[in-house]
Amino acid sequence: MSLLFLRRAKPLFTSPSQASVASPRLTNLLRRSFHGSRIMSEAEKKIVTEEELERKKKKDEKAREKELKKQKAAEKAKLAELKAKQAKDGTTAPKKSTKKSSKRDAIEENPADFVDPETPLGERKRLSSQMAKQYSPAAVEKSWYAWWESSDFFKADAKSSKPPFVIVLPPPNVTGALHIGHALTSAIEDTIIRWKRMSGYNALWVPGMDHAGIATQVVVEKKLMRERGLTRHDVGREEFINEVWKWKNQHGSTILTQLRRLGASLDWSRECFTMDEQRSKAVTEGFVRLYKEGLIYRDVRLVNWDCVLKTAVSDVEVEHIDIKEKTLLKVPGYEKPVEFGLLTSFAYPLEGGLGEVVVATTRVETMLGDTAIAIHPDDVRYTHLHGKFAVHPLNGRKLPIICDGILVDPNFGTGCVKITPAHDPNDCEVGKRHNLEFINILTDDGMINTNGGSDFTGMPRFAAREAVVEALKNKGLYRGAQNNEMRLGLCQRTGDVIEPMIKPQWYVNCSTIAKEALDVAITDENKKLEFIPKQYTAEWRRWLENIRDWCISRQLWWGHRIPAWYATLEEDERKEVGAYSDHWVVARTEEEARKEAAEKFSGKKFELTQDFDVLDTWFSSGLFPLSVLGWPDETDDFKAFYPTSVLETGHDILFFWVARMVMMGMKLGGDVPFSKVYLHPMIRDAHGRKMSKSLGNVIDPLEVINGVTLDGLHKKLEEGNLDPKELVVAKEGQVKDFPNGISECGADALRFALVSYTAQSDKINLDILRVVGYRQWCNKLWNAVRFAMMRLGDAYSPPLTLIPETMPFSCQWILSVLNKAISKTVDSLNAFEFSDAANTVYAWWQYQFCDVYIEAIKPYFAGDNPAFASERAHAQHALWVSLETGLRLLHPLMPFVTEELWQRLPSPKNSERKASIMICDYPSAIENWTNEKVETEMETVLASVKCLRALRAELLEKQKNERLPAFALCENNVTSEIVKSHELDIRTLANLSSLEVLLKGEHAAPSGSAVETVNENLKVYLKVDRAINTEAEQEKIRNKIDELQKQKEKLQKMMSVSGYEEKVPANIKEDNATKLAKILQEFDFFENESARLVAETETSGNQQTEQKKMGSVEEEQLLIEQGLIQEELKLYAEDGSVDINGNPPLKHRTGNWKACPFILGNECCERLAYYGIAINLITYLTAELHQGNVSAARNVTTWQGTCYITSLIGAVLADAYWGRYWTIASLSSIYFIGMSALTLSATVPYLKPSDCIGDFCPSPTTPQYLTFFLGLYLIALGTGGIKPCVSSFGADQFDEKDPSERVRKSSFFNWFYFCINTGAFGSFLLVLVQENIGWGLGFGIPTVFMGLAIISFFFGTPLYRFQKPKGSPITRICQVLVASFRKTNLKVPEDTTLLYETETQELIVASRKLEHTDDYKYLDKAAVLSLEEANSLEFFNPWSLCTVTHVEEVKILIRMLPIWASGIIFSSLYAQATTMFVQQGRAMNCNIGSFKIPPATLGVFDCITVLIWVPLYDRFNVPVAKLLTSSDNGFTVLQRMGIGLFISIFGIATAAVVEMVRLGMAETGTDVSLTVFWQVPQIFIFGAAEVFYFVGQLEFFYGQSPDSMRSVCSALGLLANALGSYLSSLILTVVTYFTTKDGGDGWITDDLNEGHLDYFFWLLAGLSTLNALVYVFSAVNYKQKITS
Questions:
Q1: What's the whole-number mean pLDDT along residues 442-446?
Q2: Does the domain spanning 1152-1359 belong to CATH 1.10.3210.10?
Q3: Tens digit of each residue's pLDDT (9 = 90 or more) over 547-572
Q4: What pLDDT, in 10s, does the model give residues 644-670?
Q5: Residues spanned by CATH 3.90.740.10 within the chain?
Q6: Cβ within 8 Å of residue 276, ≥6 positions away
Q7: Measuring CA to CA, how many Å separate 1478 from each of 1177, 1191, 1331, 1360, 1629?
Q8: Does pLDDT of 1594 surpass 80?
Q9: Of 753, 1058, 1210, 1254, which is most buried, counting CB atoms within 10 Å of its CB?
């Protein structure tokens, strides 16, 4: 009974602090109940924290070293004793002196024994006689690489019979230094190549270097200027090329040397350079062959020209940015930023005095090269200009007026387009169609040339832009400029603005070769190319299906000079190179070119000149898989190794490099150059940012390998070229990310970390701390081998074979799991899942070998116990095999440390040992090592150890290394035998003093012990000398019982499914019955355990003390029986709410009307702030922002709709995540920021719109628009977000389970609406301020009130009741819909009690269950248990099976929809009160004497109506209606809303009648003197409708909503208001369209006397009547929700 009470008490009170107001007995009981829970959670956290693991690791290492020292001392002592016995005198040394001698010998170590001797370069590393006590990356990684390289271990043999495996290293730039991307490439490729080499392949990894045309030329040009003050043109082409070669020979191999430091096992004998003789030969051959096949051609086209580099760049090397408006950008070579995003208009005078035509352009400087003006042939405005000419105003050139229906859109701009064929792609096509002159006005460096006119010659292009505008202004032809959206192309390398320029260039026709490259990747019957990850296949398709011809010529000096010669004939009139397109010959050499030219121009004299341009760097790179193997020659390498096996590179150069290699490889090599493409992610910093010097987050791999201080990082930044501001930011970034610099990690740790990161999609967020972690793991490997070497001894000789079945249990296990690790690693490598491979190897070494096996075998080596002689020998063999195999398994990932450790291992006698681990065989699974039985038993052992360690952590706070006795209680003999047979392993791993095995039924549970469940057949107990914490144990037991209860419910529900007995197979029914029996057995066990603990507590004498502090268990039971506790509980709210401390709230201290004044005060001030903006917003838009009536009305209604629609955001946040309190607090702050921005927009001169000058009203500037609308929509987010929360939060202050509070809640909604209108009433005074004093003050006062609203809300915090967030309602709705869809074919059982529902409590926190209803039965399928779920026990997946409550939640929402929809029409009418009613009032007489009433203030009568009606309704109408309806609240909510709908019809009809009268007076021509007070009746009627409808709507959505969706449902009501506003906008738009489409003025005009606003009002009245009738039908058929 006591246990039952504790379980029931738990949901009521959640912490001991809240119980202080209850009786002492109840308080103490609750403290006892929850104290245990707190201890459990803390203990569990301690077990799993990294700090604890780190401390444990250090302690283990210290203990291990201490034990080794003891053992060594003991061995020396025994040796001394043996020698003494053999001495002639027969005397023995005293034990004391022996120990002292041993200790002294152990301490007297020679430090030199632990230091590696110096190794001559290229020789095998000389190792120290003793392993160093700590791993040092610098010491371990020294000397090995030079020996590997000199031993030719990396070299592949073209004549080998082994199957080939080839990777080509993506050639790094000759200018580059090793960066982290290179390190990733190297780590992955070296892992692959080492694995394949060890797996029996003839593995070749070819290194190469790219000449990097542009980058290298720029570097050497800067060097020339810096050292000699010369340009390349000063020294000439030949000398400049020599300078580049000198630089390359001095600095070009830096990165390849750095790759050696990473351990990259490249075949350096095949190292190549894209500009060396063989590669140059291949480039020439490739160009010639492609030219001969017609795939390379020369053409004059517009190219992307970089004025900084003075060369063409390809489309894929151009990045585009979107510019929305006038924008200033920095352009290389210009001191001042340059303007972009402006469309400049100017006029061209027409020849013969015919007038002018106006054109517009974003690049006005190009008008210097205009050669025509285009118009549309069908444009009647310009028919008279056909065949005429315009005159260029700056150079007098005649420009023909041409007709072009393709380019010109007559509806855009003026319908006239300037044509600059030489500087615009579209104009270029027009020029070709109309045979226009192409005039290039720019030099290669972006200056205006002589074609631009003498006034502009020599000007930089963007300086000329300003000069041209000024010249146009001087001639009176400038017509202004305006903002214009545009896309601007920038060079990826220089950031220069790309200039379209007409240039002759060489191109590769890509259409056919691209299709071939695409087919081999996507066509099943011809598939030869696979992308990993597969997602890049789609990217491949996108690139190649939209490919353009490739411009391959570059106007550089460094690179492969194009093998094309121009023949200048003696008879040619124009002698410049390239003047005639048919004078080119392509050949391999000049001699061959001369022969071809002689044949082509037979009998003519000519001179040959080689093309000055060079080939695009990617052309030579595209040939790399061919050229590195000797192509075009038929070399042995090419025959043996082409095509290669895998290409590994970054996904960013999929098109730049990969596509071009495939296209050229297939065309020139006859096959795809590789069959697989692995694209690795891009590396970012730990925060996901792109690495940048200016951020200080660039990671140099060598700094990670060698380590660097923070000062060292700073110094490297200072040596760069950052400006002072960037330098400060970069240093701050380094201080933040690397406060202590970067620790020395070594190449192995860096490689392993990078490979383990490769699972991260397309980006790697590299955290250096992870690399540091792997460096520490290397230390663990080091110590593991060091431990093993001590256990093996100097004389140990490994066996040639193993017989696992004869070995001890732990040895069989380590071999079995090693076998699995081998298989999984190989499978992962084959699948290119390198991260999985790394994690598998890591997990075996860390968690199985080090954490378990090494610890488990320690007893075998503790002394020379003869009983363990056999086990010790077997353990040595298994230890050696595990180490040797594990090191080979790890080697491709960590080559250095594995080589060093492997070299230290002893080798079997009489067998040849390989020279290096890297040429050993890679491990493969050995069939007889796998032992599933042993692994299963070890799982039981390790689970037992884990439970015992958890108990130790829980029971022992400080002396955690204290050995304790333990007990294992087994359910059956099988389990008992398993535990007994592995008692030593459990005792060793769990650090126990003893382990006693008990059999259930024969032995009782040990007293004074804490229990933990291992599995259904095994429980373990740990005994401590002092008393255990029974409270904590009881809490554990309660949690277990709760868990078992859920499992029991699952099974019982499943076994009660309709058709279960008939359809479920007998074996499954039998299994389920067995499972249920086990659950009941477990249930019984824990009930007994609980009773045992209670009995022990009583007999230990603690009972009396506990009675004084808490009251006895018997008293507690008696209290329940007498109902005293229930009386105490009535003092608390029972609706699941909590107070500020998280405890059940006392009714007399919290909530109710005590808390409501603060909430109502908040609402009143917030509404004043909102309406202070909203009510006169249309006036501000028309008077200050100069918008038209329709545009302003549309903006207002759209904004108002947004204010409502954002309520969904606040509602979801409140119900699902933050709770209503924090949602209101957060979004109110955003609200205040928006109000402040709005005030600034009306106050600060720069942000305030300009006043009208006469009839001219200037449009607001972009900053003015931006500030105003930013503030406006921040207000929308804030007000919308808190709207559904404030009313619901206020209603939360009343306990629904208390009848008196339930009645007060209904009254609360009335007064809540009263406060809304009180605030609105105050806002009308603000209208007077806004229109008579100023908008700055008019917006500032609402801002102050918003601040007061926030203050009022926070003041009430101690008095509030809080409902906890209950999880996402959207998720639950989706789950029901998905689950019902998935079970479409299932039948809903007739007995609805079989539908799934929890039997204890609803799954949603503090929510009531909902009773099943019969409508929408399709949704009930979501709660039907299917047989598949029954068989698999998978019936707690909410996407497959939902509770009845969850289903009913969705049904409630569906039932609400018709009621909800009725509010849309009503709200559209209400929206007119703030738009069309105001405009109607402005057309009436607003004067009272000399005072003019702002029409917007007439809404005050609406507020007055509400302020009158609410008290009348609450105090008079409700009592009277009670007598008529027998309802506690008078009218039902639905009746109240219906009355409001019918009243609204009369309101809008009244407005229509008033407008008819006003229009009648206007049409008669009389002075319109109809006073604005004629609007009062319509406004008054609308106020009455509000009180009925809107207050009823608030109460309806709160009361009828599921407990977990109250904010969301309140938001639905507000969403109806939003849609009403949008509907109002739509109606306005539709009405305006249909009433003006025939040229009429329409119903709604700027001058209402010219329109028919009355028709518009009658239209709305008709819609409202239809809406009211539909509502009545829906309300009559509405089903109320039923809770249980």
A1: 93
A2: no
A3: 989 999 999 999 999 999 999 998 88
A4: 999 999 888 888 899 999 999 999 999
A5: 322-499
A6: none
A7: 11, 15, 14, 40, 18
A8: no
A9: 1210
CB 1167 within 8 A of CB 1320: yes
CB 391 within 8 A of CB 406: no
Q: Which CATH class is domain 322-499?
A: alpha beta
CB atoms within 10 A of CB 1195: 19
Q: From CA 536, how far away is CA 1272, in angstroms rounded?
A: 43
Count how many Cα atoms sit within 13 Å of the Cα of residue 639 in the half-sphere of its side chain: 8
Q: What DSSP assignment string belongs to 284-348?
A: HHHHHHHHHTT-EEEEEEEEEEETTTTEEE-GGGEEEEEE-S-EEE--TT-SS-EEESEEEEEEE
Contacts of 1239 (CB under 8 A, 6+ apart): 1271, 1336, 1339, 1340, 1343
DSSP state of 1436: -
What tokens does 650 get? 């970054």
The helix or strand, by DSSP H or E, that contains position 1019, with its residue range, turns out to be strand 1018-1023
Residue 102 · residue 74 · CB < 8 Å: yes
500 in Cβ contact with 375 (< 8 Å): no
Q: Output the pLDDT for position 565.
A: 95
199 residue type, one letter: S
From CA 438, how far away is CA 420, in angstroms rounded? 7
Alpha carbon 832 to its chain centroid, in Å, reads 24
For residue 70, the model assigns a pLDDT of 57
DSSP label at 669?
Answer: I
1417-1444 pLDDT per residue, tens:
888 888 887 777 666 655 567 788 888 8
- CB count within 10 Å of CB 89 equals 6
Token pair for residue 1438? 């909410």
Computed on alpha carbons and rounded to an integer, the radius of gyration of the chain in Å comes to 43
d(C-alpha 184, C-alpha 652), whole Å: 14
User: In a 10 Å sphere around its CB, with 0-12 CB exposed, 13-18 middle and 19+ buried, how is residue 1099 labelled?
Assistant: exposed
Angle between the N-to-C axes of helices 895-904 and 768-792, in degrees from 0 to 180, rounded to the nearest 10: 10
Domain 1453-1676: CATH superfamily is: MFS general substrate transporter like domains (1.20.1250.20)
Q: How far apart (Å, rounded) are the C-alpha atoms in residues 1296 and 1306?
A: 11
DSSP state of 1253: B
Where in the chain are all domains bearing CATH 1.20.1250.20? Answer: 1152-1359, 1453-1676
Q: Which helix (H) or strand (E) holds 649?
A: strand 646-650
At residue 1099, the pLDDT reads 59
3-state secondary structure of 442: strand
